[in-house]
Structures are given as structure tokens and as C-alpha cells.
Amino acid sequence: MPRRSRSCALTSGVSTRNGSPRERRGGGTGFVFTQSDGDRLHPQHVSDQFLWLAYLAGLPPIRLHDLRHGAASLMLAAGVEIKVVQETLGHTSSAFTADTYTSVFPQVAMAAAEKTAALLLGDDDQEGRSALRHLHA
Question: How far apart are CA 91 and CA 6, in angstroms?
């Protein structure tokens, strides 16, 4: 089954010294990371190399795929909209993304409750926010 085409936003700090990421793709294959001849990298080889590099760096064992989960969780903790996270990860629905990640950070739920309270009670209603914090504790 062919994979869906996806794009990924890059920060301004990403070097384009050798052209844009699209221009650097090996051999017009559509893959961003390739072997020197343009063939795709085997996923298990990439995972093995990642584990080896993590070991050499003195890091605890972590799967390459775990970085994806970490990135999604950090995006949500930073307040990135669920739809943006869903599209970044390539999930077919934002409901799946929400079900998978929003329970990871209780502070995300707390922030949502505080924002809702601020909207309902007015921005300067400290008593309302204190009551919410007391209920959460």
C-alpha cells in the first residue's frame, strides 16, 4: 500500500546551505533521508544506528519512535492546536491524536480549565481561579 505524501514544517534554523530539503532528496525518490545512491534507508538500520548513537552518547535506551511521542507531547504541552499536532504526525483524525496524547499531561487539562474559568469569570477573577486550583488539589 503506498504511503500518503506528507510535509513537515522546518524551523528557520534548519540549514539550507546545500539547497532546500526538497532539492536535497536523493535521486528524486521523494525520500528525505536516503543512501548515497538515492535508495531508501531500511527502517531497522536507521533504528539500530539511532540506538547505537544514543548508547555512545551515554543516553538511556530509547526507541526512535519514542521521539515522535515525545515531540507530540511537547507540542501539546506548549499549547499547539490538536489539529496541527494531528497533521504533523499524519494521524487520520484529531480524535485519535487527542485520545492518545492529551491524557499524558494533566497540566494541559488544568490550563484548559483555567482558560475556561477566566473566560467565564473574567480575567481578573483570582477567587475563581483559586477555587479551581483548590478543587484540583
Answer: 11
pTM: 0.57
Distance CA 51, CA 7 (A): 26
User: In angstroms, what CA-CA distances link 108 with 89, 91, 127?
Assistant: 19, 20, 21
What are the angstrom distances between the C-alpha of 100 and each of 70, 85, 93, 94, 96? 12, 11, 11, 10, 6
Q: Which cell numbers in the block locate residue 79?
A: 499549547
Query: Would you say 29 and 39 are in contact if contact means Cβ atoms under 8 Å apart?
Result: yes
What's the count of helices (H) and strands (E) in the chain, helices before strands?
A: 7, 0
The model's pLDDT over 4-39, given as tens digits with 9 standing for 90+, comes to 566 667 666 665 545 555 445 445 666 777 888 888
